[in-house]
């Protein structure tokens, strides 16, 4: 079957839309949550591209269609694929391994077999959608074998890969029984992008150790084989960002501003609203944040009447055991802290296990005097950048873990080590007490960085680097 082909094809595990059941029982497409979608939507609309990915429910096999200016090519996943490729290898092997084994990774050969099988399905779908000489941009850890599979099938294509999560040090990466296949899979790309320079350096080291190929700064020399000529692959950083102007504009709408006031009212107008917004994931350091806040309350360094913590924990990967355990622990801790320190009308923590629309998130950012990002390891953390972008009033304090990619850029935040609970407590108190002029000075410099380095610049730089590869 010959279908339409496209000059730019984006491939990611998730499509930018989910197939969901509406309230009336009818099926509909809904924009799916997550950083990648927010990041790529504007570029896809502008370049009339195709997006290859999974529709978010097992067993769905749908023909390609157009949605909101983007051509969508769904890749079906069966219930077994979902268990072994998505929940298993992607989120119970690679995710914990790449996040410095905060949780122990599981290694199962059937999961690896499913990863290979599903990566091949994505590569075949991308090969069908790509016009001759097209550019294909593959995203994230779920699809690391796709670049090589695509190159073997379609040597005419220009192939980019961007890793949204950290790439671990060799001492950790080398635990993976299939480490060489992963590196070889990625080296099928012309350009491999990472969030931080440490990630690119870790990948280059893994490449040298596992393949013996020579590397010269960001260039990997891939020697000729029977089937293919020698090639050069670039591996370097392209820190991802957000649609800063879009977030700012949304936060400036009267409806969002009014909602922000209402949120503060509903919280009883405390002098300080602190906010955490995370997927409910063990990498995010939510437990560390709660521990610090609980101790500050216990020591009466903060009072429940004055300071409230709003914690949005959006549901994520709920069938993976580590995530179920985390949820139990977090909810037990929230319950204890509220039971110990809350008063009638003043809970210490307002805990919300939901997904919220973008408007509500923007209102929460405006309502929050202090934003807490305490991840133990995070590829970038776009929430930190969204908070900054929303604050065109120039106010608000960002507490930011040094273990996020964002910390490499957002130097004027209060940088913390989330494992150092005393240090985190001091930073919270400092944020609460920070004088007006210091808050504004810091926010001004944070905003400059986020506005100048937005997602359009990120994708431009990546796609330019790809073009230069093929031109050279
Ligand atoms: C991280 C990953 C993305 C992923 C998102 C949501 O940001 O880098 O690839 O889409 O988490 O996780 P989920 O498993 O729900 O897609």
Would you mind describing this structure in some detail?
The protein has 472 residues and is α/β, with parallel strands linked by helices. It folds into 2 domains: 6-240 and 456-471, Glycogen Phosphorylase B (Rossmann fold), CATH 3.40.50.2000; 244-452, Glycogen Phosphorylase B (Rossmann fold). Helix content is 45%, strand content 20%. It contains 16 helices and 18 strands. The chain has helices at 35-47, 79-98, 109-129, 146-153, 170-173, 179-186, 197-211, 244-252, 254-266, 286-298, 321-341, 358-367, 382-390, 421-433, 436-452, 455-471, and strands at 6-14, 17-21, 27-31, 50-54, 65-67, 70-74, 130-139, 158-162, 191-194, 215-216, 219-222, 231-237, 272-279, 307-314, 349-352, 370-373, 397-401, 414-416. The strands form 3 sheets. It has a 10-stranded mixed sheet with strand order 5-6-4-1-7-8-9-12-11-10, with helices on both faces. The protein has a 6-stranded parallel sheet with strand order 15-14-13-16-17-18, with helices on both faces. It has a two-stranded antiparallel ribbon with strand order 2-3. It is globular. The protein binds 6-O-phosphono-alpha-D-glucopyranose. Residues 13-14, 34-36, 140, 164-165, 316-317 line the site of 6-O-phosphono-alpha-D-glucopyranose.
């Amino acid at each position: 079957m010959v279908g339409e082909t496209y000059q730019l094809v984006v491939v990611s595990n998730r499509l930018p839309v989910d197939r969901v059941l509406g309230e009336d029982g009818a099926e509909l497409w809904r924009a799916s949550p997550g950083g990648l979608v927010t990041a790529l939507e504007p570029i896809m609309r502008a370049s009339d591209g195709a997006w290859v990915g999974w529709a978010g429910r097992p067993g769905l096999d749908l023909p390609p269609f157009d949605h909101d200016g983007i051509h969508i090519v769904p890749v079906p996943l069966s219930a077994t694929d979902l268990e072994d490729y998505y929940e298993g290898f992607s989120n119970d092997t690679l995710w914990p391994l790449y996040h410095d084994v905060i949780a122990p990774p599981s290694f199962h050969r059937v999961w690896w077999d499913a990863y290979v099988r599903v990566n091949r399905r994505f590569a075949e779908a991308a090969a069908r959608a790509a016009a001759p000489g097209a550019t294909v941009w593959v995203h994230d850890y779920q699809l690391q074998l796709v670049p090589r599979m695509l190159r073997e099938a379609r040597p005419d294509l220009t192939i980019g890969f961007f890793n949204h999560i950290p790439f671990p040090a060799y001492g950790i990466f080398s635990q993976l029984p299939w480490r060489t296949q992963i590196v070889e899979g990625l080296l099928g790309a012309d350009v491999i992008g990472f969030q931080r320079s440490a990630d690119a350096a870790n990948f280059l080291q893994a490449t040298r150790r596992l393949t013996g190929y020579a590397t010269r700064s960001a260039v990997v020399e891939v020697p000729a084989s029977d089937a293919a000529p020698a090639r050069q692959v670039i591996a370097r950083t392209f820190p991802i960002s957000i649609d800063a102007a879009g977030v700012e504009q949304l936060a400036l709408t009267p409806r969002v501003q009014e909602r922000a006031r209402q949120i503060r009212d509903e919280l009883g107008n405390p002098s300080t609203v602190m906010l955490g917004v995370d997927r409910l994931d063990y990498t995010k350091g939510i437990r560390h944040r709660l521990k610090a806040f609980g101790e500050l309350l216990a020591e009466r360094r903060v009072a429940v009447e004055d300071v409230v913590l709003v914690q949005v924990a959006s549901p994520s990967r709920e069938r993976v055991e580590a995530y179920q355990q985390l949820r139990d622990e977090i909810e037990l801790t929230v319950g204890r802290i509220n039971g110990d320190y809350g008063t009638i009308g003043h809970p210490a923590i307002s805990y919300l296990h939901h997904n919220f629309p973008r408007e509500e998130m923007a209102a929460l950012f405006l309502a929050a005097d202090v934003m807490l990002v305490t991840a133990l390891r995070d590829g970038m953390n776009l929430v930190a950048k969204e908070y900054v972008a929303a604050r065109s009033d120039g106010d608000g304090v960002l507490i930011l873990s040094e273990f996020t990619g964002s910390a490499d850029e957002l130097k004027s935040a209060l940088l913390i080590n989330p494992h150092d609970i005393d240090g985190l407590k001091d930073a919270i108190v400092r944020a609460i007490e920070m004088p007006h002029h210091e808050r504004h000075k810091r926010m001004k410099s944070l905003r400059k960085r986020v506005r100048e380095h937005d997602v359009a610049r990120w994708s431009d730089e990546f796609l330019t680097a790809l073009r230069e590869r093929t031109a050279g």
